[in-house]
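Subject: Sanity check before I submit

Could someone independently write out the structure tokens for this chain? I want to compare against mine line by line before I put it in a report. The sequence has 149 residues.
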Amino acid sequence: MTLYDGAPYFNLILTGPKGVGKTTIGRMIGSRLGVDVLDLETEILAREGQSADEIRALFGEARLKALEAAAVSELALRRQSILIVPGATMLEETNRSRLAESDAQPPETRASRNRVGADHDRHVASQRRGRGGHGDRAMARAHDRLEAC
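---
Independent answer below. Compare away.
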């Protein structure tokens, strides 16, 4: 029995810039709840045989955005899953709308485009100084919420 048994159409979206711990947190929560964890970048790598960075370098940003939009459309059909979506992908209105229509629940840590950049810069700087960044705090918040369930 998982914590999601009473909510058959509920997904959780983890989003943010690279390096903040989306995948780590997603796997921890997924393991605890017994639900699938789906990472958009991993899905694209599996389908295309190339990473998002490689696709961008070889074919351009437009091709990457098209692949992301197609993958988001398919991920939005999933239920009882944790969806890991890069912050840049969520800047596209079409992607946000598809995920919102799927009854997905983004975490309450929404940020503006400027805030995302500032948070990422702070995270990178804290990692260089050898201290934990936003991923550590997010992990602690996720753990506290799971304990409250």
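---
OP: Matches mine. For the report I'm noting this point. The chain has one domain: 11-148.
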